[in-house]
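Researcher: Here's the sequence for the chain we discussed earlier.
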Amino acid sequence: WRFFGDTPEYKWVIENARHYGYILRYPQNKSHITGTTNEPWHFRYVGIVHAKIMEENQWCFEEYHLYIKNHSIFNPYVLECQGKLVEVFYVPAVNEQTKLNLSDHGSYQISGNNCDGFIITSWRPYV
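Model: Thanks. This is the structure I predict for it:
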C-alpha cells in the first residue's frame, strides 16, 4: 500500500471517488479527529450527496456527522446535486417508536448514523 498512492490509478480514485459516493475513510490530515492513522486504501460508500458535502467542506466522516446534527427537518442542509434540490437533516432516535412524517419530502432515504439517530436525505426536482 505504501506505493499505491504514487500511481495514476490511485490519483484517479482520489479525484473521482466522490462522484460515485465514496470517501477516503481515514485521511492523513484528520487522524487527530478519526483516531486512526491514514489508511489510503480504506474507502467508504456514503452516497453521492454526502460525499459531495464532505468533499466541498473538506470534512472527514466524524466531522460530517457532528455538523449534520445541527440540521433538523425544520432547518435542513440544502444543496443542489445531480440537477435536484437535496435536503439533508438529522433525526434523533428518541426511542424504538420515533415517528416522522416525510409525505411532503419527495423521494427520500433514511440512513442510521450508527450512533444515536438517523440522517434523512430528500430529493426534489427543481420547479
